[in-house]
Amino acid sequence: MKGFELIKHNALGKEDQSRAGDWDPLIKPVCDLINTFKNYCTTSSCSGRIIITEHSSNKKCDTEWLLVKHDNVTFEEVNESLKKIDGGEVWFHVHPFILHIACKTIEDAFELLKLFRNSGFKRVGINGPKKNVIEIIGTDRIELPIGNNGELLIQEDYLRFLVNESNKKFIKNIERIDKLFNALVGFSERK
């Protein structure tokens, strides 16, 4: 093996470095399909998630994840996670899906870039002219502080509203993953 074949072999054979330690079930069908294409392979992915974090400093290592879910959340789950706050800044996040795809050639990268853009994806680009890696990121996102110094900064009604809005965004995120999968099915049929 050499060249792109070696890159693909190494990317697909490496140990999962994510916190979960495995593929996110919602993005796995997309990754599996891409990885069947001769000139493409996924190098990292996340289906999106709803997270509550507490930060005791500006260092990433000082961040505690109070809640992590790659799916919709309930008010009860969120409320229960907030019982763990310990005095730092508390943030509520909705992260959209993200996907990195290594491409054999720059022409292959541009072909996939065109497919994604024609399918309505706004945040897609090629990272580095020598690596030929496509990055596609969903757009449904929320990030805001909800607590500080061990106290919540928002009322229960707003927290319920935030949970509801987060779930709406996560549903849109799932719809975009489905749209991405369908675009890739069409792409595979042309190959």
Topology readout:
Blueprint: H1 3-13, H2 28-34, E1 40-46, E2 49-55, E3 63-69, H3 75-81, E4 89-95, E5 98-103, H4 106-118, E6 123-127, E7 133-137, E8 142-148, E9 151-152, H5 156-190
Structural overview:
There is one protein chain. Helices cover about 40% and strands about 30% of the residues. It has about 190 residues and is of the alpha+beta class. The protein contains five helices and nine strands; from the N terminus they run ααβββαββαββββα. It has a single domain (about 5-190), classed as 2-Layer Sandwich (SSo0622-like fold). A hairpin with a 7-residue loop joins strand 2 and strand 3 (about 65-70).
Tags for this entry?
alpha+beta, 9 strands, 5 helices, 191 residues, SSo0622-like fold
Beta-strand residue fraction:
25-35%
CATH topology: SSo0622-like fold
Shape: elongated
| CATH architecture classification | 2-Layer Sandwich
Short description:
With about 190 residues, this protein is α+β, with helices and mostly antiparallel strands.
